[in-house]
Amino acid sequence: MITDLLPQLTQFQVDDQPHIILNKEICQSCEHRACISSCPANCYSFDEATKRMDVVYETCLECGTCYVVCDKEAVDWNYPRGGYGVCYRLT
Amino acid sequence: MTKHFDVIVVGAGPAGSLAALKLARAGLEVALIERGKHPGAKNMFGGLLHNTPVLNEALPSFRERAPLERHVFKKTLAFMTPKSSVSLAFETEDFGESPGNGYTVFRPAFDNWLASEAVSEGALLLCDCTAEDLLYKDGQVNGVAIKGRPGELRGNIVIAADGVLSFLAQKAGLRRNHRPEDMGLGIKLLLGLPKETIDERFNLSREEGADISFVGTTEGLPGGGFLYTNYDSISIGLVLHLHSLKASGKTPYEILDKFQHHPQIRRLIKGAVPLEYSAHLIPEGGIRAMPPIYTDGMMVVGDAAGLCYTNGINLEGINLAMTSGALAAETAIQAIGAKDYSARMLATYKDRLKDSFVLKDMTTFGKATDMMRVGRLYQTYPEIVCNILEKIYRVEGIPRSKIMKLGRQEALDRVKLKDLIADGIKIGRGLL
Predict the structure, then answer these.
(1) pLDDT tens digits, B186-202
(2) Are B372 and B327 in contact (CB under 8 A)?
(3) B245–A38: do the CB atoms touch at under 8 Å?
């Protein structure tokens, strides 16, 4: 899948401060977790064993899909600090 | 440190940079702030820069100076099923005549260039700056605070060109939370292919380009596929209605993967090398989803103002964005001349938009959003069309029906008459 190639294809300037912070308790009880399937960069995953939601903000394309599909206000989503995050070259 | 500007433009995309250019040219002190390392670093779109009169007027020689890929003179609309396709292709040499009907461009290059034109007119471009909050004075917007940086930028007017999510419009109380119903998710893969191969496969020469829109490649989800030819690469991607995507539980990249593997697409992109993958939201809610676009001390332009429309055939945003940027700049020039930055003064921005093609087209196709949500458009109808054509062309010694009878049979086999009529009305209201 193309998302496996994402770190090679698209450039990122990774900030040490995450720009996405989840309220994981809300995610735990969420019945759809649509962020996992909808995110075009496949940043979200849910570990069934530990019942833990995880987000890899490092390869986020900053589209805001997760923030818009979350109907439980569990995604605290902001733009990264200036200069950080995705950096398109061509596209 | 506080510096006071006449106007602060937030976001160096097409709307923001064209606004900054016009303001600087009028002699105003303008700050153009951009959160990317350079303008365009955060931006993507399908690929087509539509002919935009305000751009041609502001920069008459843009054709020679802007980083353009190809001029698109061939437009195709294709209805697809997993094995077949029916296309309607239109081409005309006239689309190549100056100023050109549309060009494929790369946003990191085009946006960077347009911002540099604003800088040469005197705008101050500040990259690496994310506007985090609005500042107020006497109840009017009067500047912005920058994330992770001390100090503030003050200006009499703020133009929010901060993109589809526009946190600034939200902070100003102009819009509430975004709804997935009003959004499309665009994803795109850029594929490298030698120019000669592209010319051969798409029957192009010199810098001619092709644009193909696909219906039926989204696994039944409202949306479509696109393919644009660049100079030596191809942009291929999808736009998916976000609410439908969410409800389906499907992943956008798996739908894209299947699209790329469609037999007819596979032939077009054979041997291509993936170069970049990108994604962006599109404000697809039409005129009914537009927020108020001005308040005391502030105007909202481009995607941030929800200025984008699609009726299934046209998909326009960048031209609406630049036009809104130019009109907001005109309004700001007048407001600063009168030293009146109130909502009442800035309301003339909305009037200007109403007089332009921007809000006229969005009104004309205001009901197209209903049509675009007709689920059968994205799978059933392409299948019916392909089946009819297949029955017309297939030769196998079985007696034929006339076309009308064949069409009626194919359609009624798949869709109830009352649904056909209901869909027909929606499509009619949207387009006819």
Answers:
(1) 999 999 999 999 999 99
(2) no
(3) yes
